[in-house]
Design a protein that fits this description.
The complex is a heterodimer of chains A (782) and B (227).
Chain A (H helix, E strand, L loop, with lengths): L1 H14 L1 H29 L11 E9 L5 E4 L2 E2 L2 H8 L3 E9 L4 E5 L2 E5 L2 E4 L3 H4 L4 E4 L10 E5 H8 L8 E4 L3 E9 L12 E3 L1 H7 L10 E9 L5 H8 L12 E7 L16 H28 L1 H13 L4 H38 L10 H27 L3 H6 L7 H34 L9 E5 L5 H13 L3 E7 L9 E2 L2 E2 L12 E5 L4 H4 L4 E4 L12 E5 H7 L8 E4 L2 E9 L14 E4 L7 E6 L3 H15 L7 E3 H8 L1 H45 L4 H35 L9 H29 L2 H5 L3
Parallel strand pairs in A: 7-12, 9-11, 19-24, 21-23
Antiparallel strand pairs in A: 1-2, 1-13, 1-14, 3-13, 4-7, 4-13, 5-6, 5-10, 8-11, 9-12, 10-11, 15-25, 15-26, 16-25, 17-19, 18-22, 20-23, 21-24, 22-23
Helix pairs in contact in A: 1-10, 2-8, 2-10, 2-19, 8-11, 8-13, 8-19, 10-11, 13-19, 13-20, 13-21, 14-17, 19-21, 20-21
Chain B lengths: L1 E11 L4 E12 L4 E5 L6 H8 L7 E6 L2 E2 L5 H11 E5 L10 H11 L4 H14 L15 H13 L5 E5 L7 H16 L3 E5 L3 H4 L4 E6 L2 E7 L4
Parallel strand pairs in B: 3-8, 3-9, 6-7, 7-8
Antiparallel strand pairs in B: 1-2, 1-4, 4-5, 9-10
Helix pairs in contact in B: 3-4, 3-5, 4-5, 5-6
Classes of the chains: A alpha+beta (782), B alpha/beta (227).
């Protein structure tokens, strides 16, 4: 029976070639999108899951509470925290700090030097918390010796080639000797923690002269692994005030985040983190698959007149309804299975492009159990969903009605609704895509308060200021180099902050305000072309200009000194004079607003050189490189462009925009197929009416209008609904940005125009053919 | 075998009510060959559909093989129909997507007959209808006469006690029509009851009895001499 059923289905499929191709392509496209999205989602969800007992690993983070009610959540925690938690709470089995090396380090071995920036400073427990396979050396505790360095396989091969380097020595910054204690496997791509080498905290303490016992300085990630069976929630309650118990005036409350959530979830209460993208794209996957299913329903029921006779005959000779439902469901499942096969081929072809678009190395792994389950579920759900309505509808025909010729098409209404839903979804996706693009362009092009174009910057080694001063003079001699400055960070990503700031008239009992902090050199304001509202920037004309502060408008406002300079404020233990107020500029993504900022001149903290160059960057950069290589032969000239960093801010959004655009195009294609099906159904049904109208005097234009008007009604309805849905969805999305566009009516009108154009293109030929057919050809069958 | 009592069939649309059958009382015995005649629209096909369990009457009783069936559900009618009744239509009503063999096989599938048995019986029926050489063809590759022979093969494949034929020669030329009528006559001689709606007096001549319908009433019932 099954064989005969399949045989019939396949023969049907073959006989109605155009119908089958349209249908299978629609489903295949839907399945392809869904699979691509699922592969990506699976990849995102796979982050860090390779660690053993991952559910017992937590990241400690701080909720810093500020005067205006703001809660600032950060992963940065104090140096003594890890050891203290492990000592005081029996629930904690292992605890480790982690901090990236502050800048690049020079590693030398056998007379060769390498400038590396992928170093991590960790405690020995780190290797007990995370599953990092040891290839050579100490398997039990790779970093237990304070003079050992642990290398990744990649770096080990770079430094020593393909040998076991255990016991060989590595010198860091010409001054610190280490012995290779272990070589560990490289971090997989789906790891949140990436590393090239590990160093013990002794080095950190000595090299950066850092007080690791200071509870008030936050520089470290703290990870804990809890004992088996311990509830993380209970521990959170216990450790909440751990910092306050040691620093009474602290505004810090500790919290734990399961490490499983580290990659996708934000620790800020009102932010959702990248999981949002995962959810949105899952929704898109479902929508596209739904559109494809609707398509199938539409096309399958559109052929009902043809199938009705078959149903009637089968019933006359003894078929029960159940059997017919089975037949039609088998048909849709066969269609879906073929579509799936095609979809897998499409996925295989598209994966390189999609990987590029998502910036992930995605692979199709057909042997994977999860993948197989997903595939079976997709086929069954798509097959059953898309086949359900045609099956119930077609099998409901009574043979007597068909034989008597009075059977009615009462599925027309539902089919209209399906097409309206399809178009609504497609138009809404289109509008969302446009809004996303508009917002991203706005962010990229909007005034950030300084000139981010034509800035070249280079990362330096520590303590380079003396050499820098010489370099600066030489650089300024190059034609096209306008300004040169140095700073501890570039304005694309300010990381330092403090609340230890005092100013005149600061209320005694006022709660802390968080100030961003930046150390900048002479000519910083000029190099970045920032606006000085009052006073001046740091300048050599005024001597060393240390213990002077430049603040931004927001900081001035917080301190209640909007238009006054010369006030004394104190930062930590330093007291100094405010010499300038600059107009607020953005030093982070425009998704967040501008925080109060204090800038001071502190040469020992400088880490970057920023150079303003002319429009024609290439030749100028080449000249800079020459000067650089002469001066610092041991440091590679790895320059970056600030404008590129800036674009990087919006990479996630930009990627989302591109993905949205692709999926919108696909949704439109599938919807158009649906409309095509519906129109072919209508033309089949309206043939008689059109013929009669023509017999009684209607001309081609009259008839065309009549048919087009009907279809137009649904599209207009879709447009109206899509406008509403996308408006509210995008308002919500835009409100997540500190700086946002107004959507404007243009996008909505464009969407309407586009969908009407697509409609016209889709249906024109069919209607034209119907309208021009000779009435005699239609009526002679009556 | 078939007995109707005050059978009434009314078709209703929103505004119009049409009485297709009005107090029809009939009795047809096993082995009979009955022709139903009358002008277009007199209710012939409606009567045939009710007898064939494709439709229920609006009022009155309908007995089939001892069962009183006028209130049967679709499922019950299907079950009774597939074991007992074969149909032959004017427009053949073969399924275009199935081969000749598969069209004839269809009723056996729904009766859950085993594969080998199906094969034997279909081949036998096709031989008998002299169409075995066309078993693998599709209906559209056959002439009208051949298609109707396939339809008759399909009607007899389940060994029904009753064959209902709705103008079986209506779409055929005289030679093919003659052939079809020969087949039906032969089946009747072998014991199958046949009820045939026809406009053709010569076809009606093959029957034992002619029932004349007019405006939903039985006007005359002529017993004929068996040829």
């Amino acid at each position: 029976m099954i064989k005969i059923l399949l045989n019939t289905v396949i023969r049907n499929l073959y006989k109605q070639k155009v119908y089958s191709i349209v249908n299978i392509l629609g489903l295949a496209t839907g399945v392809t999108c869904t699979l691509l999205i699922l592969i990506w989602v699976n990849y995102e969800l796979s982050f860090d899951t390779y660690h053993k007992d991952i559910e017992r690993v937590y990241t400690v983070f701080e909720n810093q509470k500020y005067a205006d009610g703001d809660v600032f959540s950060v992963y940065s925690t104090p140096g003594p925290l890890a050891a203290s938690l492990k000592k005081e709470y029996s629930e904690v089995e292992y605890a480790s700090r982690l901090v990236s090396t502050w800048g690049q380090l020079v590693l030398s071995t056998n007379g060769k030097t390498f400038v590396e920036k992928g170093g991590k400073i960790v405690d020995p427990d780190f290797f007990k918390i995370f599953s990092i396979p040891v290839l050579y050396g100490d398997y039990i505790s790779p970093l237990s010796n304070e003079n050992t360095i642990v290398l990744s396989r990649r770096l080990s091969e770079k430094l020593f080639g393909d040998i076991d380097p255990i016991g060989l020595s590595v010198e860091i910054n010409s001054n610190y000797q280490f012995v290779v204690g272990a070589v560990v496997e490289n971090a997989p791509e789906n790891s949140s923690i990436h590393y090239d080498f590990f160093l013990p905290f002794k080095f950190f303490k000595e090299y950066w002269e850092y007080d690791l016992s200071d509870w008030e300085a936050n520089s470290f990630h703290t990870f804990v692994k809890l004992k088996d069976g311990v509830n993380g929630k209970n521990l959170t309650d216990n450790i909440r005030y751990h910092v306050r118990q040691r620093v009474p005036y602290s505004n810090v409350e500790l919290d734990l985040q399961s490490f499983e959530k580290y990659h996708l979830y934000s620790i800020s209460e009102n932010k959702s983190g990248p999981i949002w993208y995962v959810q949105v794209f899952l929704l898109v996957a479902v929508l596209i698959l739904l559109i494809a299913c609707f398509n199938y329903m539409n096309l399958a029921t559109a052929r009902s007149e043809r199938r009705a006779r078959e149903v009637a005959i089968r019933k006359v000779v003894g078929a029960q309804r159940r059997g017919l439902v089975g037949l039609f469901l088998t048909e849709s499942i066969v269609f879906t299975t073929i579509a799936l096969g095609l979809g897998i081929v499409f996925v295989e072809l598209l994966l390189p492009v999609f990987s590029d678009l998502t910036n992930r190395t995605l692979t199709l792994n057909p042997g994977n159990l999860k993948f197989l389950i997903a595939v079976v579920l997709i086929v069954l759900s798509t097959g059953v969903l898309s086949g359900s309505y045609p099956a119930l509808f077609l099998s409901s025909f009574l043979p007597i009605q068909v034989i008597r010729g009075v059977f009615r098409q009462d599925s027309a209404m539902l089919r209209k609704v399906l097409v309206i839903i399809q178009f609504t979804m497609s138009i809404a996706l289109f509008i969302c895509t446009c809004v996303i693009y508009k917002q991203l362009n706005f962010l990229k092009d909007s005034d950030v308060g300084y000139n981010k174009d034509n800035i070249v910057y280079v990362e330096m080694l520590d303590d380079f200021y003396e050499e820098y001063s010489e370099l600066k003079g030489e650089l300024l001699k190059i034609p096209g180099v306008h300004w040169v400055t140095a700073a501890n960070q570039m304005p694309v990503n300010f990381l330092n902050s403090t609340w230890d700031v005092n100013w005149p008239n600061k209320l005694e009992d006022s709660e802390d305000v968080l100030f961003q902090l930046s150390f900048v050199d002479f000519d910083f304001i000029e190099t970045f072309e920032m606006d000085v509202i009052h006073g001046r920037g740091f300048s050599k004309q005024f001597g060393e200009d240390t213990l002077k502060f430049i603040i931004n408008e927001s900081a001035a406002e917080k301190m209640g000194m909007v238009y006054t300079i010369g006030e004394k404020i104190s930062l930590w233990n330093y007291t100094g004079e405010v010499i300038g107020i600059v107009k607020d500029f953005n030093f982070n993504s425009l998704q967040v607003g501008v925080d109060p900022l204090i800038m001071m001149r502190n040469p020992s903290s400088f880490k970057y050189i920023g150079i303003r160059v002319g429009e024609d960057k290439e030749p100028i950069i080449n000249k800079i490189r020459k000067v650089w290589n002469k001066k610092f032969s041991h440091i590679p000239f790895n320059y970056r462009l600030l404008e590129e960093d800036f674009a990087y801010f919006y990479q996630a959004e930009s990627r989302m925009g591109k993905l949205f655009a692709s999926f919108t195009a696909i949704a439109f294609i599938i919807s158009s197929l649906g409309l095509f099906g519906l129109v072919s159904f209508i033309t089949e049904n309206k043939a008689r009416e059109v013929a009669l109208r023509k017999v009684f005097g209607a001309n081609v234009d009259n008839v065309f209008q009549l048919l087009f008007k009907e279809i137009l009604k649904w599209i207009v309805l879709s447009i109206a609904i899509a406008w509403g849905i996308s408006f509210f969805a995008m308002e919500w999305w835009l409100n997540g940005f500190a700086y946002r566009i107004e959507m404007g009516v243009g996008i909505f009108i464009l969407a309407a125009g586009l969908s009407l154009l697509i409609t016209l293109i889709t249906i024109y030929r069919q209607i034209a053919r119907l309208v021009t057919i000779a009435p005699a050809n239609v009526l002679k069958y009556e | 075998m078939i007995k109707t009592k005050n059978l009434i069939k009314i078709f209703r649309t929103d505004e119009v009510e049409t009485t297709a059958l009005n107090n029809v009382n009939l009795e047809i015995n096993e082995g009979e060959f009955v022709a139903i005649m009358g002008p277009s629209g007199c209710g012939k096909s409606t009567l045939l559909n009710i007898i064939g369990l494709l439709d229920n009457p609006s009022e009155g009783e309908m007995h089939f093989n001892g069962y009183q069936v006028e209130n049967y559900t679709e499922r019950q009618r299907t079950n009774l129909r597939k074991e007992n009744i074969g149909f032959v239509f004017q427009s053949f009503n073969l399924i275009d997507e199935l081969t000749v063999f598969e069209n004839v096989e269809l009723p056996l599938l729904y009766m859950k007959v085993s594969g080998s048995e199906r094969k034997r019986r279909v081949n036998e029926a096709l031989e008998r209808m002299n169409i075995a050489h066309r078993a693998k063809h599709f209906p559209q590759q056959l002439s009208g006469g051949q298609q109707q022979r396939v339809a008759i093969a399909r009607a007899v494949i389940s060994n029904p006690k009753l064959i209902l034929a709705d103008e079986p020669t209506g779409n055929l030329d005289s030679a093919n029509g003659e052939e079809v009528m020969n087949l039906l006559t032969q089946l009747n001689e072998e014991g199958t009851t046949i009820i045939m709606v026809t406009h053709s007096p010569s076809d009606a001549d093959r029957s034992h009895r002619i029932i004349q319908l007019f405006d939903g009433h039985v006007v005359t019932e002529n017993m004929r001499q068996k040829l």
